[in-house]
Amino acid sequence: MSYQIQTINGVKVITDSSAPGVPITTVPGDGGSMVANNAAALLSLQGKVTRDIVFGLNGNLVVGTDKTNHVPLNYAATAIQAYAIAKTAPTGSSAIFVIKKNGSTVVATLTMNAGTTTATATGLSTTLSIGDYLSIDVTQIGSTVPGANCTITLTIAYT
Questions:
Q1: C-alpha distance across the termini of the chain, in Å
Q2: pTM metric for this prediction
Q3: Where are the alpha helices (DSSP H) in the chain?
Q4: Domains of the chain as residue ranges with CATH
Q5: Residue 19 neighbours by CB under 8 Å, 6+ apart
Q6: Tens of pLDDT along the chain (159 residues)?
Q7: Which residues, listed in sequence order, are joined to residue 66 by a DSSP beta bridge?
């Protein structure tokens, strides 16, 4: 039996070269503990391997729908948190950003309070599928200074 390392669903695993694509569960001579422990560790990462998707809003904020390019998804995932940061804070009132799936389903709403430059949304649970796309709506801006040059990050966990 010979072994090889393969990437399966984005995770490196040990496979038997006679059965490519099938992770092994034992290694002769170790009683199976090394690979079994590694396999258990890899399985425990499902839903925990994350990726950040970043959107940019350059210049002064302007209220409107679909304010960024669409970001297509080529993997299944779950949204877990979102974060926004601005170079210029909104003043007079809050700036509100809505991350949407396929232009309609709300994934997260971020409220950047007047006079601050950050906003966070945690505990998200929207399921994202292959073929979905993400976009940003700006539903409110500062009434005195709109806020400017914002970066919005959505953290997703692969499923």
A1: 32
A2: 0.72
A3: 33-44
A4: 3-44 (no CATH), 50-158 (2.60.120.40)
A5: none
A6: 566 666 666 665 666 666 665 555 444 444 444 444 555 554 555 556 788 999 999 999 999 999 999 999 988 999 999 999 999 999 999 999 999 999 999 999 999 999 999 999 999 999 999 999 999 999 999 999 999 999 999 999 888
A7: none
